[in-house]
Amino acid sequence: MGQPAQPSNRSLWLSLIVLCAGQMMIVIDQNIVNVALPTVQRDLGFSEANLVWVVNAYVIPFGGLLLLAGRLGDMLGRKRIFITGIVMFSAASLLCGLATNEAMLIGFRFVQGIGGAVASACILGMVATTFDEPRKQAQAIGAYSFASAGGGAVGPLIGGILTDLVDWSWIFFINVPIGAVVVLLAARNVPHETGLGGISRKADFLGAALVTAGLMSGVYAIVNAEKVGWAATETLILGPISILLLVAFVIREATAEEPLLPLKIFRSRALSAANLVQFLMIAGMFGLLFFGTLYLQKVLGLNSLEAGLGYVPIALVIAAVSLGLSAKVITKFGQRPVLYAGLVLIVAAFVMLSFARVDGTYLVDFLPATVVMGLGFGLAAPAMMGLGMSAVTPQDAGIASGLFNTTQQIGGAVGLTVLSAFVTARINDLGGADDIVALNGGYHRAFQAGAVFVVIALIIAVAMLRSSERVAAEQQQAHAPAL
């Protein structure tokens, strides 16, 4: 990977702002659409069955192309791939806002998902390699964590405001000026990288095809199962096909001369543990974002705008912790203890939510738990990503970044599907969806399951990271000179 000339400190931090702005724009778009779906359905005449494809048409290519886009960044230069993705994402956003029928919006959302994957796959890799000094790197990864989590929290709020006060098309149009500014600033301020020398004839095109097809079919099977169930014909066919394609991909990577995903990077327990922890943590966090919103609206009786405003405090806490506190405590105590503390706080927040009352209030039953959740996530996410990214070489930073993003997407999709099944079963046991007590009991089950996910993540982190530290110490001792 060609090294850029050393930029100024001011330019480095401006580069970070640009990258985080691009990440936040993409993350917000994943959540901003949901609140506008009823309006989109009315204006464009969507059928109930096709409405879900406004979401799925974006999620499927996004989740399927992250690994490939990350590796392309390593080969061709991450800055080049990032800018290409932002241009594609912004252009597709404009077309989405101009869509006049079902087919146009679904097709342009698919292109938007491709652009989002291409842009976001390399961002974490660029953030981690741009900052070498440990404390600055911790601050930079904290900012990236805020952009990812904060975007998810404020997406529904922004979507509600734009849809209610302007028009649903502006949830897409707003990306155009933001994307233009990001591209212009990125061209001037993001450090240039030459990549590994381009795509050679030995490039792993077969591996790229296998993993893209495997991930796309897997994501489709998961999101389809959420709507029609795991026993549906499509799910039963595509699920095994996805598994077979991904197994074939692993076999291919073990034998390819220039693999798309070098399996050697998984020799690092830190990278493997970080991805497993993220998978489980995000699976649980989707329970808060999705079922927490339902609790606010269906149990406490808040409208969509009020429910969106209800997530502002967690976004503010994540911002304060990720952008300020996390780097200081990571520098002082190390990444592992901070990760453990953050996961414990997330578990505590889920436990608090599992006691939310039918006759409760936002200030008592929801706000305290979300503050604790924001504190926990703001500590855990930067520490987790720092541990994972510190375990890979700069040449593999793009594929590692794509891997983290893929884990996040799959974790969210799997988590929401599994939690939905738990919720539905509990609601049916307690009396059905017409009973507010049954609804609240179902949401409690989602929060309890989220706590279990994060407890498992904590166990994995403690076991694997301690083992990793012991192995490193033994290797260092074995290579130490004899006295």
UniProtKB/TrEMBL annotation:
Sorted UniProt keywords: Cell membrane, Membrane, Transmembrane, Transmembrane helix, Transport
Transmembrane helix among keywords: yes
Spans traversing the lipid bilayer: 12-30, 50-69, 81-100, 106-129, 141-162, 168-191, 203-223, 229-251, 272-296, 308-326, 338-356, 368-389, 410-427, 447-465
UniProt domain Major facilitator superfamily (MFS) profile: residue ranges: 15-469
Membrane topology of the entry: Multi-pass membrane protein
Compartment(s): Cell membrane
Pfam families: MFS_1
Annotated InterPro entries: EmrB-like (IPR004638), MFS (IPR011701), MFS_dom (IPR020846), MFS_trans_sf (IPR036259)
Signal peptide coordinates: none
Name assigned to this protein: MFS transporter
Source organism of this protein record: Micromonospora cathayae
Taxonomic lineage: Bacteria, Bacillati, Actinomycetota, Actinomycetes, Micromonosporales
